[in-house]
Amino acid sequence: MPAMRRSRRDRARARGELGKKVAMCHLTLGEKGHPKTCASEYAALKREEAEAAAKVIGAKVCFLPYEDGLLPVNDEVKFAIAGVIRDCKPDLIITHHSRSIHKDHVSCHLNVPDAVFYAAVKASLLTTNPITVPVFCSPRTGRTARDSSPNSFWSER
Question: How many whole angstroms separate alpha carbon 105 and alpha carbon 102?
Answer without folding.
Answer: 5
